[in-house]
Automatic annotation (TrEMBL):
PANTHER family for this protein: SYMPLEKIN (PTHR15245:SF20), SYMPLEKIN-RELATED (PTHR15245)
InterPro entries (alphabetical): ARM-like, ARM-type_fold, Symplekin/Pta1, Symplekin/Pta1_N, Symplekin_C
Cellular location(s): Nucleus
Segments for region (Disordered): 462-489, 1085-1111
Pfam families (UniProt xref): SYMPK_PTA1_N (PF11935), Symplekin_C (PF12295)
Protein name from the UniProt record: Symplekin
Origin: domain of life: Eukaryota
High-level lineage: Eukaryota, Metazoa, Ecdysozoa, Arthropoda, Hexapoda
Residues of the Symplekin/Pta1 N-terminal domain: 107-326
Length: 1111
């Protein structure tokens, strides 16, 4: 677009600024009204007010011819018309746009462009004719206008009635512009015709233009007599022909003949009311033509035709041309004849005879028979087959529809086969006819002279009366001659009959039997079938194909069988013939053609033959091997004029065959797009395959349906289908619709399986990534599903749900407004999304809010544990460890970072492994049973990669410093020592520090202390000796097997070492002072720590599917 259009407007805007503003506004506005209004204002300024600006902004205005809105393109067409008429210099710049608009997809735009084309053609011809020199731009423009004329001539066969009407009006203008006008009609100032074109104009010669106009006129007359023309087009063409005949009298005879033929040969497609309208228009047209002087010689025939059309005598008499118009016409004709005679006299003045020539003239008169013989020989020598053919073809127009009685009576077939004799006979007849024509001409001249003599002798009579009298005399003479001729002819015939007997075919032939006829017919068809190469070399392959398709469509079944066998033998090379036959059958089916009497099955339904042929071709293609099979199937379905229900079913069967590959499914998609009338049928077939048992077919069909989902006209239907099948999951048993041979499940099942669940859910899940709003429908349906179906759904949603993303507004909305009963589904979805990545802050916030306000199930927090705070995780631990052991393990995996080690995503957790184990020891026994906590700590110790020797040491150190000591401290110490024996020294240190903290004051910890000492002997002997006597006696009583090893250990001491051991301690070791202490402490032996399985204390519905991590 011109950069000037984007200039900043000043406060006082000139015409150019206004044009810039209007064009900018029109290009940016989406509304039709604004664009049309602005373009009309631009047209007013550029054409009427400021025409000097037109060349400057023409291209910018023409760009709107590409606008999507038809009304805008129509407005631009009017702009082009006015611009070309007012300023012809711009025609070279607009013709190309006009060519495109004439063939616009909108009929309103095309009709407006056709109206504009007539004025543009006239303006261009005037412009070129008035130019001093012809420029290259003019030549280009004229060539484009010539192409435009050819294009519009082709549009006279358009399917649109309005376009045909405008094409006829355009051709009417072409005839008027490119022919000479009637000199009797006064010329108007703006008239333009062939006489205004200079003889020196090279690009548009008068002779060529006139020939083109004559051809166009012939085309109009042919269109006028077409059997399929509509009433509107017929009356329009009738008006155009009448106007041409009035302004161009040279076309009057042809127009009148066309109108006469029309009365007896009206198109059969017209209704009764249309016939009445056409006849009324025909009467008015003939009355109008009768008023024109040029029609005077046809006046009797027109009057007769008007009488048949119901015209009154007064109307006919009133329509006769005025006498002065007739005299002027006759005078002009006489002047033209005199001018022509003067030219002949001028040429022949040198031939004035002298006396010698008079003598020779007498000699010529005496030799007239010789000249006649010479003429016969002249004709015979030059009469060739080509000339004879031309003579016959030219005279066919004058041959009557029925054989005349004279011809029947006088014609005798030639009795010889000698070509030379026949040539001389024909030459003789032609010479006689030439002589008769000359005699008739002389006789007509004599008749005119006789009429003049009668008028001179009797001046009181009129010219008409004198002619009528002379005609009556002539008729009487003709009657006498005819009688004499007839008598003479009958005499000659009598003689001839005695000599020759006419050949009658029925006398020399016998009728063939039906079997022989059928056999000969089949032989003829087989010869045509075998002549394929000959027809191709001869250039008549198309004609041969037409013959075969016509025979196959209209003849008996054995002909069809022969042609069908021929086609199916080589489907690769004969598909074109098959399609031709298919179209022939379609034409018969739709009534475009009539069936011949040769068809032997009149009772056959109209669609049966077409349907049988189409399905047979599909079956034949299915037998073709190789890659061509899919191509042939594509062509057949895409090029067939009609796809029947059986053909759809055949394609459905083919596309459900896995061995055929995915091409049939791709064809189904193409049929949905390219067959609007059968769009829903093919879409339904493709949708059926989305629930197929075969995984390959199902996934391919789902992929193709998802591609179609992007088309606005199909998205709603596909979505409704997916939601409908999703709703089937509410049923207790699978619906029968998912079973059948076409679905790959021939047997009906009464229980939901993963296959039937996929059939109902597959398409829905595939659409979920395109239309995330559908997630809410899944949650609503999920609440009504049975437990088994829920479990399968939870497994199947994993792949599609990953495409949602944690930031999906629809997912967040679902979490926020989770339907009651769909918590496990929502948890599963969140679990899938957070399995290999940290939860987003928005998701954590929504889950936290839901947990705090509506859903108290701690399982809801599991997927977002890593997004919670350390305090929230520790607070939820008592509930979490009460869950199923597998779920607890999943919780620890998330917290410890072992669930996504393979993904490469860095782990972030609100709590460290050491803090988790310490938090488990600090759980209040009132919130969770001791054995439940023991199970949880055992799960931690099972993760050796996380709980290394150092981590365990840190935990023990931290637990030992607590007051009071955790109940499970010593169990953890024993388990740590069992896992990592190298910690024995560290454990001894802890035991010594526990003595200082008077560990015996906490019975459970004290029991663990004694057990640890028992398992770590002899290293623990040094720690045991540090116990007070009372506690030592109690320890030895609790672990009696310690006494002997401890005593042996002490006895092995040196004397100086024994001196450091108090006597009270020695007494206890030696058993002198026993403490009666008894308690039971159930600690598993080293290396054997059985985890007791106790039912989950949390009440859960056993019919519900497993929470996240169970599957």
């Amino acid at each position: 677009m011109d950069p000037r259009i984007h200039r900043r407007t000043e406060p006082e805007k000139g015409p150019g600024d206004l044009i810039v503003e209007w064009l900018n506004e029109a290009s940016l506005s989406p509304g039709e009204d604004v664009k049309v209004a602005n373009l009309c204002k631009v047209q007013e300024i550029l054409i009427n007010k400021e025409p000097q600006l037109l060349p400057l902004y023409l291209d910018e205005a023409l760009q709107f011819s590409l606008d999507r809105n038809a009304e805008v393109r129509k407005t631009i067409t009017g702009f082009i018309e006015e611009a070309g008429v007012k300023q012809p210099e711009v025609i070279p710049r607009v013709v190309q746009t006009l060519l495109r608009l004439v063939s616009d997809e909108s009929s309103a735009v095309a009709k407006r462009a056709l109206r504009a084309s007539g004025r543009i053609l006239r303006a261009a011809l005037k412009w070129i004719s008035s130019a001093i020199t012809v420029t290259p731009e003019m030549e280009v423009a004229w060539n484009q206008l010539s192409a435009l004329k050819v294009q519009i001539i082709d549009m006279i066969d358009s399917d649109n009635d309005g376009i045909r009407t405008q094409a006829v009006k355009f051709l009417e203008g072409v005839v008027l512009i490119q022919t000479y006008p009637d000199p009797d009609i006064p010329k108007k100032p703006d008239d333009f015709s062939l006489e205004d074109i200079p003889l020196t104009l090279k690009i548009a010669r008068r002779r060529k233009l006139e020939e083109e106009a004559n051809d166009v006129m012939d085309l109009l007359i042919k269109f006028h007599g077409s059997p399929h023309v509509s009433s509107v087009n017929l009356m329009t063409c009738m008006g155009s022909l009448a106007l041409i005949a009035k302004t161009r009298p040279q076309f009057m005879p042809g127009v009148i003949q066309a109108l006469q033929r029309l009365q007896h040969d009206l198109p059969p497609t017209l209704s009764d009311s249309q016939v009445t309208s056409v006849q009324k228009q025909l009467k008015l047209t003939l009355l109008g033509l009768m008023k024109h002087p040029a029609s005077i010689e046809f006046a009797p025939a027109i009057a007769k035709q008007l009488t048949q059309l119901g015209a009154k005598e007064q109307e006919i008499v009133k329509a006769y041309p005025k006498p002065e118009d007739i005299r002027r016409m006759k005078k002009r004709q006489q002047e033209a004849a005199a001018s022509s005679a003067a030219k002949r006299v001028k040429i022949e003045t040198s031939l004035i005879p002298d006396e010698s020539e008079i003598v020779s003239g007498l000699v010529l008169t005496s030799k007239l028979p010789e000249l006649l013989e010479l003429s016969e020989s002249f004709i015979a020598e030059r009469l060739s087959v080509e000339i004879a053919t031309d003579l016959v073809m030219d005279s066919m127009a004058w041959v009557p529809d029925t054989m005349t009685t004279i011809f029947q009576r006088e014609y005798q077939p030639s009795s010889t086969t000698d070509i030379n004799i026949q040539r001389h006979t024909i030459a003789k007849l032609l010479a006689i006819q030439i002589r008769q024509a000359k005699t008739k001409k002389k006789k007509d001249t004599k008749d005119e002279d006789a009429v003049m003599e009668d008028l001179v002798k009797n001046p009181t009579i009129s010219v008409a009366e004198a002619k009528r009298e002379r005609k009556r005399e002539k008729d009487r003479e003709k009657e006498k001659e005819a009688k004499a001729s007839l008598e003479a002819h009958e005499k000659s015939l009598a003689k001839t009959r005695t000599r020759l007997k006419a050949l009658k075919l029925s006398e020399v032939t016998k009728p063939l039997s039906k079997e022989i006829k059928e056999k000969m017919l089949l032989m003829a068809v087989n010869r045509i079938l075998l002549s394929e190469k000959t027809a191709v070399f001869g250039g008549v392959a198309a004609i041969r194909s037409k013959i075969l398709t016509t025979l196959a469509a209209t003849f008996n079944p054995y002909i069809k069988e022969a042609v069908l066998r021929y086609i199916t033998d080589d489907m690769r090379n004969r598909l074109d013939l098959a399609l031709g036959w298919l179209y022939e059958e379609y034409a018969l089916l739709q009534g475009f053609q009539r069936r011949t009497t040769l068809c032997t099955k009149p009772q056959e339904a109209p669609h049966q033959a077409y349907n049988f042929l189409l399905c047979t071709l599909v079956s034949a293609i299915d037998l073709v091997q190789g890659k061509d099979r899919d191509t042939l199937l594509y062509r057949l379905y895409l090029e067939a004029p009609l796809i029947t229900e059986d053909a759809v079913e055949a394609l459905k069967v083919v596309s459900s065959d896995e061995t055929r590959g995915l091409m049939p499914l791709q064809l189904l998609k193409e049929m949905v797009i390219r067959r609007p009338t059968k769009q829903l049928v093919f879409l339904n077939v493709l949708l059926c395959h989305t629930g197929h048992e075969n995984n390959t077919i199902r996934e391919a069909a789902i992929q193709l349906v998802c591609q179609l989902y992007s088309r606005p006209e199909l998205s709603k239907l596909i979505e409704e289908y997916a939601v409908l099948y999703l709703g089937f999951l509410r049923l207790h048993t699978p619906p029968e619709i998912v079973f059948g041979q076409d679905r790959g499940r021939p047997q009906v099942e009464t229980q939901w399986t993963e296959s039937t669940t996929r059939a109902c859910l597959g398409l829905y899940l595939a659409l979920l990534s395109e239309h995330q709003d559908l997630i809410h429908e899944l949650a609503r349906v999920y609440t009504s599903m049975s437990a088994d179906v829920k479990r399968m759904v939870l497994r199947l949603v994993e792949g599609p749900v990953r495409s949602l993303g944690m930031g999906s507004p629809q997912l967040l909305a679902l979490v926020e407004n989770c339907p009651k009963g769909a918590e496990t589904l929502v948890t599963r979805i969140i679990h899938i999304l957070t399995e290999k990545s940290a939860p987003s802050a928005e998701l954590v916030a929504r889950v936290r809010e839901l947990y705090q306000t509506r859903v108290s199930d701690v399982r809801f927090l599991i997927p977002v544990l890593n997004g919670l705070t350390k305090k929230e995780v520790i607070a939820a631990l008592p509930k979490l460890i009460k869950l199923n052991p597998i779920v607890v393990k999943e919780v620890f995996n998330r917290l410890l970072g072992t669930h996504n080690n393979e993904s490469g995503v860095p782990h972030t957790s609100p709590i460290t492994p050491a803090e988790l184990l310490i938090a488990l020891h600090n759980i209040d026994p009132s919130k969770a049973e001791l054995k439940t906590i023991i199970k949880a700590t055992s799960l931690c110790f099972a993760e050796k990669q996380i709980y290394t020797q150092e981590t365990v040491a840190v935990v023990m150190q931290h637990l030992m410093e607590m007051t009071p000591l955790p109940t499970l401290l010593m169990r953890t110490v024993i388990q740590s020592l069992a896992l990592y024996p190298r910690l024995s020294g560290f454990v001894m240190n802890i035991l010594q520090r526990l003595i200082l903290k008077q560990v015996w004051k906490q019975p459970k910890v004290w029991e663990g202390f004694v057990k640890c000492c028992e398992r770590t002997q002899p290293q623990s002997f040094a720690v045991i000796l540090q116990l007070p006597p009372t506690q030592l006696a109690e320890a030895l009583k609790m672990a009696s097997n310690l006494r002997a090893p401890l005593l042996a250990h002490v006895e092995a001491f040196a004397e100086n070492q024994k001196a450091h051991i108090p006597q009270s301690i020695m007494d206890v070791i030696q058993g002198k002072s026993l403490c009666d202490m008894h308690d039971e402490f159930d600690i598993a032996p080293p290396g054997d720590y059985p985890i007791e399985q106790k039912p989950d204390t949390m009440e859960t519905d056993v019919s519900e599917p497993a929470p996240p991590g169970l599957d």
